[in-house]
Amino acid sequence: MHILIYPKLNIFLKIIGFQAGFHQLQSRFVLAQGGLYDEMYISTSNAFALKGDFGCALEDNLIYKAKCALEHYLHKHNKPTKALDSIKVEVLKRIPKGAGLGGGSGNAGAFLKAINTFLSLGLTQNALLDIAKGVGADVAFFASGVQSANVRGRGEIIESTNTESANETSLDYEIYTPSVFCDTKKVYQYYADSIKANKRAYSEPVKDWFKLSSKALLEQHKDRAEMNDLFLSALKAYPALLDVARNLGQEWYFSGSGSSFFRLKKA
């Protein structure tokens, strides 16, 4: 089985509070279906194998965590798990790490969705999403198979916008990723520190934004800091991003915790 895994962009990202140990988000996730993507190959093998330029130990890899979470779910529901130990997963990595594009989450979500078909597990969409939520906040979006969604909570509450706008899934994006690796935990820590120091406050909910198309959001809101609550914290954590932002100009937006910028592709 061969799967293409596209990067995720945050059209906007608002942090509206902190609950049960996690920041609570409102965001619009979209898949940027262009020339940048990872490729995943799934095949049978004598033993479980995971290959790719992941840059982390096996136990820290989100695909491996997804496999373990799936095993746990199957065992809990008295379903066989042996087949999971007879697959080989190989990923050709192109989506850069530390770029705010959901590369690792995309791999894990795509794996769950694909392996359900590959092994004929017969898991429902809700079951897949429940498993994905335990692996990582953004994994559920990729496991859902939707191309555009309004997202809440930690990123695990997904409401598809694929059918709300005829143009939503046909938008083309340009992505620029500078040679700056952004550690998500570090950026969030800078954000949390600014909240504790009363230098900023959590955002008010922006439910009206959920009703707008991604194109309308980008056309109506030009301020990066307004569109992404993590932008200023990323600049503090990685000052080199300031020059990147200045050189790109105001039409480029910031995705997630960075370091990637994006814009609608010009005709």
TrEMBL record:
GO biological process assignments: terpenoid biosynthetic process
Q: Which residues form the GHMP kinase N-terminal domain?
A: 66-145
Check the record and name the InterPro entries matching this protein: GHMP_kinase_C_sf, GHMP_kinase_N_dom, IspE, Ribosomal_Su5_D2-typ_SF, Ribsml_uS5_D2-typ_fold_subgr
One Pfam annotation reads: GHMP_kinases_N
EC assignment: the record states 2.7.1.148
GO-annotated molecular function: 4-(cytidine 5'-diphospho)-2-C-methyl-D-erythritol kinase activity; ATP binding
Question: Which SUPFAM superfamilies does the record match to this protein?
Answer: GHMP Kinase, C-terminal domain, Ribosomal protein S5 domain 2-like
Q: What class of enzyme is it?
A: transferase
Keywords assigned by UniProt? ATP-binding, Kinase, Nucleotide-binding, Transferase
* Keyword Transport included in the entry's annotation: no
Name of the featured protein = 4-(cytidine 5'-diphospho)-2-C-methyl-D-erythritol kinase
